[in-house]
Amino acid sequence: MERTRILREMGLGPVWKLRAVPAEAVLDVGEPQPASIPLAESVPVADLNPPLATAPAMPGSPATGMGWAELAAAVSSCRRCPLCQTRKQAVLGVGDVNADWLFVGEGPGAEEDARGEPFVGQAGKLLDNMLAAIGLRRGQNVYIANAVKCRPPENRTPTPEEVAACRPYLERQIELLQPKLIVALGRPAAQTLLQAEVKIAAARGKLHDYRGIPLVVTYHPAYLLRTLLDKAKAWEDLCFMKRSMPTLRGD
Ligand code: URA
After folding, report:
1. How many CA atoms lie within 13 A of 17 on its CB side?
2. Under a CB-based contact definition with an 8 Å cutoff, are residues 74 and 66 in contact?
3. The CATH fold of domain 46-52+64-247
């Protein structure tokens, strides 16, 4: 069965079998269960997340009022931080600009830098499988972006200054997209969006708020590739997102 194959590819099958979770529990992600979703009001972001000591945003957003074409041009010629010196190309994002779902990662890696598209390497394959597991597909009601648009050398975590320099572009993307749900993949994306110190283990399973848009936090696919056991938690997060979506504005 297709879903079984996808779960096996994600490395979830054996984990769920070991824990003796009934197959129905794994498969039944499409059913809305609004009563089980902790709402943002009951989980104040401020209580969970102390303010992050980030670099201050640079004055005057370079992206204010831009449309997609202008934004793409601005990002591809951006020189706001030193990452522009080592990138092959900037990677704005990919997908459906009318998407309900926005997935935000950390920053391009070597393959993304070469191809100009986010999440096209190994982590991207896992992300595609995660999307498929909840009935989603890259480019169809899904947009994928990163916290920083240029590859940090050696795939290091972007510095607070690099994130701050790039944040106006992500903010403008979100303004243009107006997604129903934002999924922050990993800590740097979550911290960039929530502007707070985030621990994934504490932040997952709840609806947070990004300027009025619900936001959920889960593990980054690259981390999941290294940490088999947390794939089961990622699967719980996917189920939570899938259940939450029909309860969100406009549905
Ligand atoms: N990791 C990310 O966070 N983003 C990508 O685009 C690729 C890998």
Report:
1. 7
2. yes
3. Uracil-DNA Glycosylase, subunit E (3.40.470)
Q: Which two tokens stand for residue 35?
A: 């009563």
158 C-alpha vs ligand 1 centroid, how far in Å? 12
Query: Where does 95-182 have alpha helices with state H?
Result: 110-115, 122-133, 160-177
How far apart are the CA of 221 and the centre of ligand 1, in A?
Answer: 8
| pLDDT grade for 4, boundaries at 50, 70 and 90 | low
Kindly give the distance from the C-alpha atom of residue 13 to the centroid of ligand 1, in angstroms, as a whole number.
Answer: 24
pTM: 0.83
Nearest to 177 by CA among 100, 246, 73: 100
Q: What is the pLDDT of residues 46-62, one digit of tens each?
A: 344 556 555 554 556 88
Q: Is any ligand 1 atom within 6 A of the Cβ of residue 230?
A: no
Strand partners, 51: 196
* pLDDT score, position 168: 98
CA dist 238 and 218 (Å) reads 8
Going 101 to 102 to 104 to 108, the CA torsion angle's sign is positive
Angle at 243 between CA 237 and CA 248, to 5 degrees: 110
Return phi, psi of residue 180, to 5°. Answer: -80, -30
